[in-house]
Amino acid sequence: MPAVSPLRNDWQRAEIEALLALPFTELLHRAASVHREHFDPAEVQVSTLLSVKTGGCPEDCAYCPQAQRYHTGVEASKLMSTEAVLEKARQAKAAGASRFCMGAAWRSPKDRDIPKVAAMIREVKALGLETCATLGMLSGTQATALKSAGLDYYNHNLDTAPEFYGEVIHTREFQDRLDTLSHVRDAGMKTCCGGIVGMGESRAQRAGLLQALANLPAHPDSVPINRLVQVEGTPLAGTAELDAFEFVRTIAAARIVMPQSMVRLSAGRESMSDELQALCFAAGANSIFYGEKLLTTGNPDTERDMALFARLGLRPMAVVETAGTVHAGIVEDIVASPRSCAA
User: CA 314 to CA 117: how far, in whole Å?
Assistant: First the structure.
């Protein structure tokens, strides 16, 4: 019997707006039904994210405490050593993470940085963890080099709808993000690509973000949905907080339009109640970060997450090794970018 929710890359904005406008319980029912077609609804993929190079970014993303032009108290640091990263990866694996994500606050890495990151990737991969990275914009050559080192996933978020993008970021174009994603796909890596909500965008613009994601040449393997974390000193500090039910609606719509993607609760989860997170899981979210702080913003600690899983009857996706490769559960996924993680 064919799936009720076929993969589509031709979503119209009006269709997604109509989804977001459904009665809340109807929208959750539809999203939960789609979720069950493709995933075990009791499983959640768990990853740990480490900032391997923090602060000093030259971009002007209005949400990001790592931008050097904003006074947020984030001190710029140099790239961590491979051994220091490896120790964090060992700790993450011991705590139950199946994937280790490395983020660096660069606009784009310099070619001389790639061998250093590649060494980290090889060593983390050797531990039996899936690897992912978010380093900013990549050239085709850089993407190929990272793939050769064993990188499984690369994150580069669209952040918001194309027409709202210029209200948030001025130091790169929306097309630059699409170009990096193209390089990553061409290199044979899987993509993680999502966005941030609660930056002052309208519901129609949230629909525009989901439309842009769902209509990429291939759906992202992972779709991080970040809820803006307002950081004092950034231009978006003081923005009206997004309604919690509107956030859940966004999760549900993402599940429906990208049925086989992992939908990840990313930045902003620290401030979410257990009840709000439970609604997000019911709406089709099936991936989280835990453990390490989410780059420059907080992340709920491991004990709280495991206690919530126990209360809800959820379990972490198991790591399954096949033919020398490592897979987490049903479908693999990755991280939010340094900019979106900080949001």
Answer: 34
Residue 275 CA to residue 252 CA, distance in Å, equals 16
Check: CB of residue 24 under 8 Å from CB of residue 215: no
Distance CA(218)–CA(331), nearest Å, equals 14
Instruction: Look up residue 243 and give its amino acid.
Output: D
DSSP for 9-59, written as a single string: S---HHHHHHHHTS-HHHHHHHHHHHHHHHS-TTEEEEEEEEEEE-S-B--
Residue position matching structure tokens 């606009």: 107
CA distances from 72 to 231, 232, 296 (A): 7, 6, 10
Q: In this predicted model, what pLDDT tens digit does every residue of 261-320 receive, in sequence order?
A: 999 998 888 889 999 999 999 999 999 877 554 444 444 577 888 899 999 999 988 754
- Structure tokens, 172: 């790169």
- The amino acid that residue 192 corresponds to is C
Q: Give the chain's mean pLDDT.
A: 87
- Active site amino acids: 57, 61, 64, 101, 132, 192, 264
Which segments of 188-301 does DSSP mark as H helices, in order?
203-214, 244-257, 274-282
Q: What is the pLDDT of residues 6-15, one digit of tens each?
A: 799 999 999 9
**Tokens 């990549």 appear where?**
138
Q: What is the pLDDT of residues 171-211, one digit of tens each?
A: 999 999 999 999 999 999 999 999 999 999 999 999 999 99
